[in-house]
Design goal:
Shape: globular
Structural class: mainly alpha
Distance between the termini: 40 Å
Number of strands: 0
Number of domains: 1
Largest sheet: none
Bound molecules: zinc ion
Length: 202
């Protein structure tokens, strides 16, 4: 899914949890950590992409990648077509907060940190919860470019979903319509709920 969709869906949960409370055996809701966690999985690759795009711009390197990989290629094209699948630090950056085992690790560590009254426990727990929500949505929405399921223990296994949120050859166009209808409704609900909440109750 698009990064902003993850943010809006998590915002809807935050709004819900603020009113109805988080599950009682969870640490108290840490709103900022939750919202950062909704986009944290995508941030490392966004930063790397910005670096590569700036490099391409500085080099006047704007040729689109050729379909068979031959001919001149932008560094950004090379990043997504080759490095994403083969370069260890790009794979590590992508899976730092996408890898389901990593994320379960953050949740577990945060939970025990909270139990032991460490200040970082609660925010780490909620950051991990939002990352888990993000990656559980991402896994069924990527064909060959999804999260590494067993990272950091195994660096190649992904779930090959028949649906890709971006690839028009794998229902990407249809999914994009569904995705934007869904987050559109959530946005309307969020704005309506915020509007209602700002007036004193009568
Ligand atoms: Zn993602």
């Amino acid at each position: 899914m698009q990064t902003y969709s993850h943010y809006i869906m998590t915002k809807a949960y935050e709004r819900y949890a603020k009113k109805n409370g988080a599950p009682s055996n969870f640490p108290p809701l840490a709103k900022k950590a939750l919202m950062w966690g909704s986009i944290a999985p995508d941030i490392p690759l966004i930063l790397i992409s910005i670096g590569f795009i700036l490099y391409d711009l500085s080099q006047g390197n704007l040729a689109p990648p050729t379909p068979d990989g031959s001919g001149p290629q932008s560094a950004t094209g090379y990043l997504f077509e080759y490095m994403f699948f083969n370069t260890w630090w790009v794979k590590a950056a992508h899976n730092l907060f996408h890898g389901p085992l990593m994320v379960v690790g953050y949740i577990t560590l945060g939970y025990f940190g909270w139990k032991k009254n460490r200040v970082w426990g609660t925010p780490l727990f909620w950051l991990g919860i939002a990352c888990l929500f993000h990656t559980l949505i991402d896994i069924p929405l990527h064909y060959d470019d999804g999260p590494l399921l067993l990272f950091p223990f195994e660096w190649n296994i992904r779930f090959y979903s028949p649906v890709s949120y971006w690839d028009p050859n794998r229902y990407g166009r249809e999914f994009a319509i569904f995705e934007h209808a869904l987050i559109g409704m959530m946005l309307i609900w969020l704005i309506w709920d915020w509007w209602r909440g700002r007036r004193p109750a009568n």
